[in-house]
Design brief:
heterodimer; A: alpha/beta; six-stranded mixed beta sheet; B: 257 residues; mainly alpha
Chain lengths: 258, 257
């Protein structure tokens, strides 16, 4: 890791009070994310990983501590940090191409620039044939691709992904993971990816951050040296399987000690 | 117009035709045209209504036009103003706090209760009638726009923000299109309401319109003209409702309704 991190969490604590009960979602959370890396944050449901992503997006402010983007404290959402949510956030009242062009158009780019970006990401996500389609007519997996293309086209410095494939069936999920990794060969953008699926985290990430259950804090950071190009064969390779087993045991232990 | 009429008829199924025919036959049989169970004074027979059409002639058209123009004015102005105010209430906390108690306490009051004041202020001139109809539509639309905006899924607004949309872009490109499907029901209710209000407005005094004609017929003791007016209102309201649904269908193509 060279240079300054582009996104960094410094001693972040987040507490929620819901119905009188105080929930400690994140505790002393420290993490630096560097340019061009694909970092996956993995943890059990309710461990505060989505909280971390919402802080990075600027949709939430920490109870104490700071979150910095390029050295500046994050103050609300903006297009340097586009989000792909778990739930379907494709705008149903816009055709596919309008959805993808939403970011650049909102940012005041010229029509020519917008249509260039739209064409580029339609092609990269294999959606050219569906450019005029209404989202309602597409399958869940296709809509997710529209969502990904839309986030890329907004040209963020860092892409935030909150369990984007969580609601899809496993075949579709693996397929989209492979496509996302392939997309990285062309567009090496910084990605902060949240998931509860250990295999997904290992397959996608350059670094995998393992979180403890609530209050969420970082238990371990693992480097995944599986190279840039990753295909489905990786999933059954011995180095992948043994790292997966090792981490699975580790997560089991931190679960017991809590 | 032709298309809308064609659409009304295309939606009519054989059972519907049966129901209408049975009602007509029933009416015919009960009236003095048939068995004479009901006197012509209490409920005029079909033949007299047909005679009324001939007697009134062009007045049928001019009355319909006068009523329809009031309906359209109230619907359009009331919907536009109601949408603007409803949106302001949600988007500006201060405007919301300022207007909320006022509108909430005024809303349940039937606008018809205001008729005596409107008569004092405007006499039987046009502005009083237009104001009555507009006010009724306005109150209905304000609250529905307010609720629809509050129900816009948070995820669309969050996504738009992280893609770089400004507040006004979110209002125009996210909130406005996403509330339209929720407004179809309230707008259809508004159409029905305008017809109620237009008749009330024309009853309070007018020189034209279907309501005026009905009131005049009561004075002149022409029950067949009253019945004709009721038929006219029914046809016009159905026509408006169909046109509205057609328009809304076009605006919500994306939702697959």
């Amino acid at each position: 890791m060279v240079g300054a991190p582009i996104l960094s969490f410094k001693d972040v604590n987040v507490q929620f009070s819901a119905e009188g009960a105080l929930t400690h979602a994140l505790s002393e959370f420290n993490l630096d994310i560097y340019a061009n890396e694909f970092i996956c944050l993995v943890g059990q449901s309710g461990c505060g990983k989505s909280t971390a992503l919402n802080l990075a997006a600027g949709l939430l402010t920490p109870t104490s501590g700071e979150v910095y983007m390029d050295g500046q404290i994050i103050n609300g959402p903006d297009s340097t940090r586009a989000v792909v949510f778990q739930n379907d956030a494709v705008f149903p009242w816009m055709r596919v191409e309008q959805n993808i062009g939403f970011g650049p158009k909102s940012q005041g780019k010229s029509n020519a620039e917008v249509s260039d970006l739209v064409n580029q990401y339609l092609q990269l996500t294999g959606l050219q044939e569906f450019r005029h389609a209404w989202p309602m007519t597409l399958s869940g997996g296709m809509r997710k691709r529209v969502d990904l293309a839309r986030a890329y086209a907004a040209d963020p410095k860092i892409l935030l992904m909150d369990e984007p494939f969580g609601a899809l069936d496993f075949l579709l999920k693996e397929n989209l993971q492979e496509q996302l990794r392939k997309l990285r060969g062309i567009d090496k953008r910084t990605i902060f990816f949240i998931t509860h699926d250990l295999e997904e985290a290992l397959f996608l990430g350059d670094r995998v951050v393992v979180m403890t259950p609530r209050p969420g804090t970082i238990a371990k950071i693992v480097e995944c040296d599986f190279g840039e190009e990753r295909t489905s064969a990786l999933r059954t390779s011995s180095s992948f399987v043994s790292l997966r087993r090792e981490l699975r045991e580790f997560i089991g232990k931190i679960g017991e000690s809590k | 117009m032709k298309k809308a009429l064609a659409q009304i008829f295309s939606r009519i199924k054989p059972l519907g035709i049966l129901a209408v025919s049975l009602t007509m036959i029933f009416w015919y049989l009960l009236s003095v045209d048939g068995l004479g169970v009901i006197s012509a004074i209490k409920f005029p027979p079909p033949s007299q209504v047909i005679d009324a059409v001939e007697v009134l002639g062009v007045k049928i058209g001019t009355d319909a036009l006068a009523t329809l123009s009031r309906v359209l004015f109230g619907l359009i102005v009331g919907t536009v103003l109601g949408s603007i105010v409803g949106a302001l209430i949600v988007f500006s906390r201060r405007i919301g706090e300022f207007l909320h108690p006022l509108i909430e306490s005024a809303r349940p009051v039937p606008v018809i209760a205001m008729i005596p004041f409107f008569l004092m202020w405007f006499g039987i001139e046009e502005p009083g009638k237009l104001l009555l109809i507009t006010l009724g539509v306005f109150m209905l639309i304000v609250v529905n726009v307010e609720e629809s905006i509050k129900n816009v899924p948070r995820i669309y607004i969050d996504a738009a923000k992280t893609l770089g949309a400004s507040k006004s872009q979110i209002q125009r490109r996210i909130i406005l299109p996403s509330i339209i499907p929720n407004m179809i029901g309230p707008l259809r209710v508004a159409v029905a309401l305008t017809f109620t209000l237009v008749v009330a407005a024309e009853f309070m005094g007018a020189q034209s319109g279907i309501g005026y004609r009905i009131l005049e017929a009561r004075r002149l003791f022409n029950p067949q003209v009253i019945l004709l007016g009721i038929f006219q209102l029914g046809i016009l309201a159905a026509l408006m409702d169909t046109l509205l649904q057609k328009l809304m269908k076009r605006l919500t193509k994306w939702s697959g309704r």
